[in-house]
Structure formats: structure tokens, C-alpha cells
Design a protein that fits this description.
alpha+beta, 5 helices, 9 strands
Amino acid sequence: MDQKQTEQRLAQRLADLRVDQGWSLETLAEMTGISRASLSRIERGENSPTAALLNRLCSAYGLTMSRLLSEVEQSGPQHLRPAQQNVWRDASSGYLRRSVSPPAQAFHAELVEAQLEQGALIEYDLPPVAGLEQHIWMLDGVLIFRMNEQQWRLEKGDCLRFHLFGRTSFSAPEAGGAHYALVVARP
């Protein structure tokens, strides 16, 4: 699926989620700290949300980002070639996210490939689902991962496993950025 189709399906899914909850744009704006105007533009597909804004929306809906992005995919096969994998880009932060695992509601774990450009910084105020299990396996480059007061410097071959709680950030401070695999497992 190409980037434009993914963005349009994401916009529609976000609008559907809000309506399904019976929330107005004002209610969702109060819950997420995202302006009503921004939410409206996102739901109409005029603006693509940043990773940080998408995380706030996922938190409001109790979904992981992987789950939300898999919901914009149609149910598919068990096997996906790279060209069939859903790719989402946050151009403002230099973040590229590929959903490697085929979309499936019945599974609890998903595999994501992530790339951050040099200097990229993604910050999340809170996790979309508290206690979410994640594993970061560095494929190339350097990633600085922070969770609350803890910080890890991850380099090629390193693996970090944790349960997600509180504020987090991902940054790629060095030339070449950061390229990593992320396993996300719902509690």
C-alpha cells in the first residue's frame, strides 16, 4: 500500500474511532492536548499526524501504534513481501516505521522495523498501553532510548527488553541515524 493510501485510511480510522466512542472533537482535544483544528485536519487527511500526536491518540483509544496502523490494513495473508508491508513516515521527526508482521487481530506480538534519521528525536508523554512489553534490537547505528529517568545507548547488535511505563524518547544522535527492529507485545 502506498504512503498516500495509508495516510487516507489512517485518517478515516481515526475519525471512525472517535465517532465510535461518541466523542466530539472538543472532547478528544481535551483528552489528548491536541487542538480541535489539528484533530479535524488529521481526520480529514489534510495533515498526517506526527509520531508524538499519533501516540497521544493511541493512548486515548487504548491502542498501540502497531495495532492502530495494522487496523488501516485490510486482513491479509500470513506472509508479506516487503512491498506489501505497511510503511508510515513522520517527515517532521525523520521517523520511518514499517509494519513487518502481517496484520492480525488474534496475535499479541508484532514486529516493526524503524529508522530514525541523524538528529531525529521522538518524544512520547505516555505509552499507548501501560506495561506494554517491547524489545529493541539494533540493526545499525546508535539509538538513545530514555524511559522516565533511565537512559540506554544502544549500538549495532544490542538488545533492550522492557515494559513500557511513563515518558519515553528515541533519538539518533550520530551520523547514519538508527535502524532497529522493535517487537511489541500487548499485555
